[in-house]
Amino acid sequence: MNWNHELWVVANTAIAMVLGGLVGVEREMANRPAGFRTHMLVAGASALLLGIGMVWLTHSREIADGLEVQSDPLRLVEAVIAGVAFIGAGTIFSRGQKQTIAGITTAASLLMVAVIGVAAGLGYYVLAVGATLLTLATLTLLRWFDRIVRRRAGLPVSDEDNEDDVH
Protein backbone atom coordinates (compact mmCIF):
# COMPACT_ATOMS: atom_id res chain seq x y z
CA MET A 1 0.00 0.00 0.00
CA ASN A 2 1.25 3.46 -0.91
CA TRP A 3 1.45 5.83 2.07
CA ASN A 4 1.39 8.81 -0.29
CA HIS A 5 -2.22 8.04 -1.17
CA GLU A 6 -3.19 8.01 2.48
CA LEU A 7 -1.35 11.26 3.17
CA TRP A 8 -3.17 12.79 0.20
CA VAL A 9 -6.48 11.75 1.80
CA VAL A 10 -5.47 13.28 5.12
CA ALA A 11 -4.50 16.54 3.38
CA ASN A 12 -7.79 16.63 1.46
CA THR A 13 -9.68 15.95 4.68
CA ALA A 14 -7.86 18.84 6.38
CA ILE A 15 -8.69 21.18 3.50
CA ALA A 16 -12.34 20.13 3.64
CA MET A 17 -12.41 20.70 7.39
CA VAL A 18 -10.96 24.20 7.07
CA LEU A 19 -13.51 25.09 4.37
CA GLY A 20 -16.37 23.56 6.36
CA GLY A 21 -15.15 25.42 9.42
CA LEU A 22 -15.43 28.74 7.59
CA VAL A 23 -19.11 28.07 6.99
CA GLY A 24 -19.44 26.82 10.56
CA VAL A 25 -18.04 30.08 11.95
CA GLU A 26 -20.82 31.98 10.18
CA ARG A 27 -23.43 29.59 11.63
CA GLU A 28 -21.82 29.85 15.08
CA MET A 29 -21.88 33.66 14.93
CA ALA A 30 -25.56 33.50 13.95
CA ASN A 31 -26.14 31.29 17.03
CA ARG A 32 -27.56 28.39 15.00
CA PRO A 33 -28.01 24.77 16.12
CA ALA A 34 -24.97 23.43 14.25
CA GLY A 35 -21.83 25.52 14.34
CA PHE A 36 -18.10 25.50 13.80
CA ARG A 37 -17.15 21.99 14.93
CA THR A 38 -20.19 20.30 13.40
CA HIS A 39 -19.58 21.86 9.99
CA MET A 40 -15.88 20.97 10.16
CA LEU A 41 -16.66 17.37 11.02
CA VAL A 42 -19.31 16.97 8.31
CA ALA A 43 -16.98 18.35 5.62
CA GLY A 44 -14.07 16.29 6.91
CA ALA A 45 -16.09 13.09 7.11
CA SER A 46 -17.28 13.60 3.54
CA ALA A 47 -13.75 14.08 2.24
CA LEU A 48 -12.44 11.17 4.27
CA LEU A 49 -15.15 8.80 3.05
CA LEU A 50 -14.44 9.67 -0.57
CA GLY A 51 -10.70 9.46 0.02
CA ILE A 52 -10.96 6.05 1.65
CA GLY A 53 -12.98 4.85 -1.32
CA MET A 54 -10.37 6.09 -3.75
CA VAL A 55 -7.48 4.57 -1.76
CA TRP A 56 -9.34 1.28 -1.49
CA LEU A 57 -9.99 1.24 -5.22
CA THR A 58 -6.30 1.88 -5.95
CA HIS A 59 -5.22 -0.74 -3.42
CA SER A 60 -7.70 -3.35 -4.68
CA ARG A 61 -6.36 -2.88 -8.20
CA GLU A 62 -2.82 -3.45 -6.91
CA ILE A 63 -3.70 -6.69 -5.12
CA ALA A 64 -5.99 -7.95 -7.90
CA ASP A 65 -2.93 -8.23 -10.14
CA GLY A 66 -4.35 -7.30 -13.51
CA LEU A 67 -8.02 -7.93 -12.76
CA GLU A 68 -10.27 -4.99 -13.44
CA VAL A 69 -11.92 -3.77 -10.26
CA GLN A 70 -14.96 -1.60 -10.81
CA SER A 71 -16.55 0.81 -8.40
CA ASP A 72 -19.22 3.45 -8.63
CA PRO A 73 -17.95 6.56 -6.83
CA LEU A 74 -21.45 8.01 -6.75
CA ARG A 75 -22.39 5.36 -4.20
CA LEU A 76 -19.94 6.96 -1.79
CA VAL A 77 -21.51 10.35 -2.45
CA GLU A 78 -24.94 8.83 -1.78
CA ALA A 79 -23.65 7.51 1.55
CA VAL A 80 -22.43 10.99 2.46
CA ILE A 81 -25.80 12.53 1.57
CA ALA A 82 -27.70 9.91 3.59
CA GLY A 83 -25.56 10.57 6.64
CA VAL A 84 -25.90 14.33 6.34
CA ALA A 85 -29.66 14.02 5.89
CA PHE A 86 -29.81 12.34 9.29
CA ILE A 87 -27.71 15.07 10.94
CA GLY A 88 -29.55 17.86 9.10
CA ALA A 89 -32.92 16.54 10.24
CA GLY A 90 -31.72 16.98 13.81
CA THR A 91 -31.12 20.69 13.26
CA ILE A 92 -34.66 21.32 12.01
CA PHE A 93 -37.19 21.67 14.78
CA SER A 94 -40.71 22.91 15.38
CA ARG A 95 -41.37 25.54 18.00
CA GLY A 96 -44.13 27.56 19.57
CA GLN A 97 -47.89 27.59 19.24
CA LYS A 98 -47.67 28.74 15.61
CA GLN A 99 -46.00 25.46 14.63
CA THR A 100 -43.09 27.32 13.04
CA ILE A 101 -40.09 25.43 11.74
CA ALA A 102 -36.52 26.64 12.29
CA GLY A 103 -33.11 25.32 11.28
CA ILE A 104 -33.70 24.74 7.59
CA THR A 105 -30.83 26.99 6.51
CA THR A 106 -28.46 25.27 8.93
CA ALA A 107 -29.50 21.88 7.59
CA ALA A 108 -28.86 23.16 4.06
CA SER A 109 -25.46 24.52 5.10
CA LEU A 110 -24.57 21.08 6.49
CA LEU A 111 -25.50 19.53 3.16
CA MET A 112 -23.41 22.16 1.39
CA VAL A 113 -20.32 21.54 3.51
CA ALA A 114 -20.75 17.81 2.90
CA VAL A 115 -20.61 18.46 -0.84
CA ILE A 116 -17.66 20.81 -0.32
CA GLY A 117 -16.01 17.92 1.53
CA VAL A 118 -16.73 15.61 -1.40
CA ALA A 119 -15.13 18.11 -3.79
CA ALA A 120 -12.05 18.47 -1.56
CA GLY A 121 -11.89 14.73 -1.02
CA LEU A 122 -11.74 14.21 -4.76
CA GLY A 123 -9.06 16.89 -5.11
CA TYR A 124 -11.29 19.49 -6.78
CA TYR A 125 -9.92 22.39 -4.75
CA VAL A 126 -11.16 25.22 -6.97
CA LEU A 127 -14.68 23.79 -6.79
CA ALA A 128 -14.42 23.36 -3.02
CA VAL A 129 -13.13 26.89 -2.40
CA GLY A 130 -15.59 28.40 -4.89
CA ALA A 131 -18.51 26.58 -3.28
CA THR A 132 -17.34 27.74 0.15
CA LEU A 133 -17.25 31.36 -1.00
CA LEU A 134 -20.68 31.06 -2.60
CA THR A 135 -22.06 29.49 0.57
CA LEU A 136 -20.63 32.23 2.77
CA ALA A 137 -22.00 34.88 0.42
CA THR A 138 -25.42 33.25 0.55
CA LEU A 139 -25.43 33.04 4.34
CA THR A 140 -24.11 36.54 5.03
CA LEU A 141 -24.97 38.85 2.15
CA LEU A 142 -28.44 37.47 1.61
CA ARG A 143 -29.24 37.74 5.33
CA TRP A 144 -28.31 41.42 5.11
CA PHE A 145 -30.45 41.79 1.95
CA ASP A 146 -33.36 39.99 3.65
CA ARG A 147 -33.25 42.42 6.58
CA ILE A 148 -33.34 45.42 4.23
CA VAL A 149 -36.32 44.00 2.34
CA ARG A 150 -38.13 43.20 5.61
CA ARG A 151 -37.56 46.73 6.94
CA ARG A 152 -38.88 48.29 3.73
CA ALA A 153 -41.91 46.01 3.80
CA GLY A 154 -42.58 46.86 7.42
CA LEU A 155 -41.97 43.30 8.58
CA PRO A 156 -40.20 42.49 11.87
CA VAL A 157 -36.43 42.02 11.67
CA SER A 158 -35.59 41.07 15.24
CA ASP A 159 -33.35 38.06 15.83
CA GLU A 160 -36.35 36.08 17.05
CA ASP A 161 -38.36 36.82 13.91
CA ASN A 162 -35.38 36.41 11.60
CA GLU A 163 -34.43 32.84 12.55
CA ASP A 164 -33.11 30.32 10.06
CA ASP A 165 -35.90 30.36 7.47
CA VAL A 166 -38.69 30.24 10.03
CA HIS A 167 -41.98 29.19 8.39
Automatic annotation (TrEMBL):
Q: Does the keyword Protein transport apply?
A: no
Q: Report the locations given in the UniProt record.
A: Cell inner membrane; Cell membrane
Main subcellular localisation? membrane
Classify the protein's membrane topology as the record does: Multi-pass membrane protein
- Top-rank taxon of the source lineage equals Bacteria
Domain (MgtC/SapB/SrpB/YhiD N-terminal): residue spans on this chain: 14-147
Which ranges does the record mark as transmembrane? 6-25, 37-56, 76-93, 100-119, 125-145
Q: Which UniProt keywords apply?
A: Cell inner membrane, Cell membrane, Membrane, Transmembrane, Transmembrane helix
> Among the entry's GO cellular component annotations, what is one?
plasma membrane
Read off the Pfam families from this record.
MgtC
Q: Which family does it belong to?
A: Belongs to the MgtC/SapB family.
List the protein's name.
Protein MgtC
UniProt source species: Cognatilysobacter bugurensis
